[in-house]
Amino acid sequence: GDYTGINQNTWIGANVTIGDDVSIGQNVMIEDNVQIGDRTFINRDVSIGDGTVIGSDCAISKGATILAGAVIPDGTVIGKNETISP
Predict the structure, then answer these.
(1) How many CB atoms lie within 10 A of CB 3?
(2) Rounded CA gap, 9 and 29, in Å?
(3) Concatenated DSSP letters of 7-28
(4) What is the sign of the dihedral through the CA atoms of 38, 73, 36 and 57?
(5) Beta-carbon neighbour count of residue 32 at 10 Å?
(6) What pairing do the DSSP bridges indicate for beta strands 59-60 and 35-36?
């Protein structure tokens, strides 16, 4: 997306859609078929599983793990080292 920043050591799989004004920290792994909405902040050391949908205006804290197929609504804040199931 426009005005999106992606830091070092970040791996992004196939068919990933990233919205505008998204910030992605270092050492983030984004698997295939993920959708990330506008103005979302993803801190470092985050893992996002295949097929996950993350809404707009979300904040994902350091070390979080989002398991495959999870749907994260707009405006959600995920805490440090949390694991989110589908």
Answers:
(1) 10
(2) 9
(3) -TT-EE-TT-EE-TT-EE-TT-
(4) positive
(5) 14
(6) unpaired
d(CA 59, CA 23): 10
Locate 5 and state its tokens: 């920043």
Q: Quick check: 79 and 62 in contact, CB under 8 A?
A: no
Which residue's structure tokens are 């792994």?
A: 29
Distance separating alpha carbons of residues 73 and 44, to the nearest angstrom: 20
Q: What is the pTM of this model?
A: 0.95
Chain segment 8-35, per-residue pLDDT in tens: 999 999 999 999 999 999 999 999 999 9
CA–CA distance, 27 with 69 (Å, rounded to integer): 21
Quick one: tokens of 19? 């919205």
Alpha-carbon gap, residue 70 to 25, rounded angstroms? 20
